[in-house]
Write a structure and sequence with these properties.
Largest sheet: 3 strands, antiparallel
CATH superfamily of one domain: Winged helix-like DNA-binding domain superfamily/Winged helix DNA-binding domain
Helix content: 55-70%
């Protein structure tokens, strides 16, 4: 058992220089900006699903999960919620009854069109303090981090 009075070397960390802490705070800022600009009509992940469907047409739930880096149960729940709202439709794939194909409905296309400009504003608001070159560099660096980061479900406390 450790003595709570004995200092731990290197602790406390300077959280303003700790990448994980900054990423978490950035995600919080993104969610707050999303709520301000887009509102409660769609979550950013639901918008992502509709956006992928608009660009790819009909896709399997597995493909959807791969593109958005989401696990199967998360995708199934997302699609079910979008389907219940009439924004997406799914059907069994001919020849493979275990797979569902998902497509955008006319209503989903309309909602996507109505929220796309606000979703784009989220990025502008979130990165307003950056120059265009800095925005590009931020996206490049985040993409590099994500390319090499571990993947998979993480239990959030």
């Amino acid at each position: 058992m450790t003595d709570p009075e004995v200092p731990v070397p290197g602790v406390p960390l300077d959280l303003s220089r700790h990448t994980g802490f900054l990423v978490r705070r950035t995600q919080q800022a993104h969610l707050a900006t999303w709520a301000q600009e887009v509102g409660a009509r769609l979550t950013n992940v639901q918008f992502g699903v509709l956006n992928v469907l608009a660009g790819r047409g009909e896709v399997s739930q597995r493909e959807l999960g791969d593109v958005l880096d989401l696990d199967r149960s998360t995708v199934a729940g997302l699609v079910a919620r979008l389907e219940s709202r009439g924004l997406a439709a799914r059907a069994r794939v001919d020849g493979d009854r275990r797979r569902n194909a998902v497509r955008l409905t006319d209503e989903g296309r309309r909602v996507l069109r109505e929220t796309a400009r606000a979703a784009a504003r989220v990025d502008e608001v979130l990165t307003a303090a950056l120059s265009p070159a800095e925005r590009t560099e931020l996206q490049r660096l985040l993409t590099l981090v994500l390319r090499t980061a571990p993947r998979g479900p993480v239990d959030q406390a």
